[in-house]
Write a structure and sequence with these properties.
Elements (H helix, E strand, L loop, with lengths): L4 E2 L2 E5 L9 H12 L1 H8 L1 E4 L3 E4 L4 H12 L2 E5 L6 H14 L5 E6 L2 H16 L9 E4 L3 E4 L4 E6 L12 E5 L6 H16 L5 E6 L6 H10 L6 E4 L10 H10 L2 H7 L14 H4 L9 E5 L2 E5 L9 E6 L9 E7 L5 E9 L7 H11 L4 E4 L5 H11 L7 E3 L7 E3 L6 E3 L5 H16 L3 E2 L3 H8 L1 E4 L2 E4 L5 H12 L5 H5 L3 H11 L33
Parallel strand pairs: 5-11, 5-12, 6-9, 6-10, 10-11, 15-18, 17-22
Antiparallel strand pairs: 1-2, 3-4, 7-8, 8-9, 13-14, 14-17, 15-16, 16-17, 19-20, 19-21, 23-24
Helix pairs in contact: 1-2, 3-4, 4-5, 11-12, 13-15
Length: 539
């Protein structure tokens, strides 16, 4: 009856409409409430491109997703393109909201239009349910649904403020790998307290891989049992009709790399990255042995300082306005391969405070040598580090040499503390960094750094972040420029020029030009072990 319809839509009933159930309907309702797979395969309708409106029959991997979403709080699915992901999620969300009171679901996607498209499919499936299975509708629009049992579904873009202040029983993240890196991190920092406030709240994530980002980290950790996510890996051949012939045809009409990412679900980055994509695939991140909170961020320690070892810290300074990051890269230069041993990144730290952080990290790592980038406000930081904190291991540059900046010993009228990242400095640093990493002469273990390397790409005549930040990579670029200086081998006891040339020859590359210059080296590193001294924990 029209009077029973919601706003004149004869396919959905309004709230507070009585239903006289038959005995058979009651039995069916109970079956559906107990078994989501039964409910979906008997009552959820979808549009088949060939057959039109049909009942949704789940493939085995789709059934696995449905069951996992009901049995686990945290589920992450790595899936190829066009494999029925959205229709599966429609069934999952529909079942949870129909057969649970006051069940709130948030659908979040890269763009609001994408999440609303998923909501529209839920509405389509809802409209084709028999009236005795429907809950009465209280609100029904493009952005949200509210049912008379108190359940709600919200569609929004993935952002740090998307569901702030709300209380949700399920959060669904669609194509999460394609959300910009900075938004992924901000979202989890903002939203996870909402999730963890309950003991049954669920997170369901589905995506095709898109380089190395937070989705990759969550997936990798799920496979190593380092988080609570139940991982489901869907292969392209799991979808009926996809065989080797289909694969070859798809590759012929697209490309090998596109197939590997979109259907093979490989975590490849851009094809024009500084580091060869094949090498990037072999980089493995590790977890720090400890993280030390310091001025709103963490010092991530991957290897504690070793008595007698020598370290260099490269520093990139930002404004502290929540955009770019102020960073420290700590590298063990005692022997080849060089090793990344610690990182620090913070996008809100004030330049008046950052020198204290640098000094403490430097002291902790055997009074490490420090190279500060001074293009912008870095000069303020390095001046404070030298004059106020009297740190002696600051590297200086002769700024009067026409051919380019050269590290030089001591202080004088022609020298400056720190280095400016000129076109030449960046070119040499990028070239050397490529050789060092691809020949395993520099070992990188920090997830955030590897993440940035996946998106550090060629843009016109330089390399920069494809999206997000590249501050940690630029710290490695500065280090790679530094080791090109002839006197670096005097303090590291390694002939770096020989290392670079040999690595280049192994890879059939031209050897890089080595600039002449000097390097200042303050006091010999003092013997400090973590047990003897930890400036971060001293207070």
């Amino acid at each position: 009856m029209a009077s029973d319809s919601y706003l004149g839509n004869p396919l959905i009933k309004k709230s507070n409409v009585a239903i006289n159930f038959t005995a058979e309907q009651i039995q069916e309702y109970v079956k559906c409430a107990k078994d989501p797979v039964y409910f979906i395969q008997n009552y959820v309708k979808i549009v088949n491109i060939d057959l039109g409106l049909v009942t949704f029959k789940l493939y085995p991997y789709q059934q696995s997703i449905v069951e996992s979403a009901c049995d686990n709080r945290f589920v992450i699915c790595k899936m190829p393109r066009q494999c029925g992901k959205t229709t599966t999620i429609v069934g999952v969300i529909l079942w949870h909201t129909l057969f649970n009171e006051n069940y709130n679901v948030a659908i979040l996607a890269h763009k609001a239009a994408q999440s609303r498209e998923i909501l529209s499919r839920i509405q389509f499936a809802y409209e084709h349910l028999p009236k005795w299975l429907q809950q009465g509708v209280v609100e029904w629009n493009k952005g949200n649904i509210e049912l008379e049992n108190g359940s709600k579904i919200l569609a929004s873009a993935t952002s740090s403020s998307a569901i702030r202040g709300g209380s949700f029983n399920m959060i669904y993240l669609d194509e999460f790998a394609f959300v910009p890196n900075n938004l992924q991190e901000q979202f989890f920092a903002s939203v996870y307290p909402t999730i963890s406030s309950g003991s049954t709240s669920k997170v369901l994530i589905t995506s095709t891989p898109n380089g190395l980002n937070l989705f990759y980290k969550l997936w990798a950790d799920s496979q190593d049992n380092k988080n609570d996510y139940h991982g489901i890996d869907v292969h392209w051949s799991d979808t009926p009709g996809r065989d080797e012939k289909w694969k070859l045809e798809t590759i012929r009409n697209t490309s090998e790399q596109q197939f590997r990412v979109e259907y093979g679900c490989e975590f490849l980055g851009s094809s024009n990255t500084l580091i060869d994509p094949a090498k990037l695939q072999t980089l493995v991140f590790t977890y720090p042995i400890k993280t030390v909170p310091y001025f709103g961020s963490d010092l991530k320690v991957y290897t504690a300082p070793v008595k007698g070892n020598k370290y260099i810290i490269t520093v990139d300074v930002a404004q502290g306005a929540g955009l770019d990051y102020s960073i420290c890269q700590v590298i063990d230069i005692t022997s080849v391969p060089y090793k990344q041993v610690a990182t620090y990144k913070n996008n809100i730290i004030h330049t008046l405070v950052f020198p204290d952080v640098i000094r403490n990290i430097g002291i902790y790592y055997n009074e490490a040598l420090i190279l500060v980038e001074i293009n912008d406000i870095g000069k303020q930081v390095v001046d404070s580090l030298h004059y106020d904190l009297e740190y002696e291991g600051i590297l200086t540059v002769d700024k009067s040499i026409a051919a380019g900046q050269k590290l030089t010993g001591g202080f004088g009228t022609r020298t400056q503390m720190g280095v400016r990242t000129t076109t030449q400095v960046k070119r040499i640093g990028c070239s050397n960094l490529k050789t060092l990493i691809e020949s395993d002469k520099l070992l990188v273990c920090d997830f955030d750094t590897i993440n940035e390397l996946f998106r550090f790409v060629s843009v016109r005549n330089t390399f920069q972040a494809e999206d997000g930040n590249d501050d940690l990579v630029m710290g490695l670029v500065l280090f790679s420029w530094l080791i090109n200086q002839p006197y670096f081998k005097d303090m590291s006891e390694n002939d770096v020029h020989k290392v670079l040339v040999e690595a280049a020859m192994e890879d059939d590359l031209l050897p890089f030009i080595v600039d002449e210059g000097y390097i200042s080296y303050g006091n010999e590193p003092i013997d400090v072990s973590p047990d003897q001294f930890d400036p971060f924990l001293a207070n």
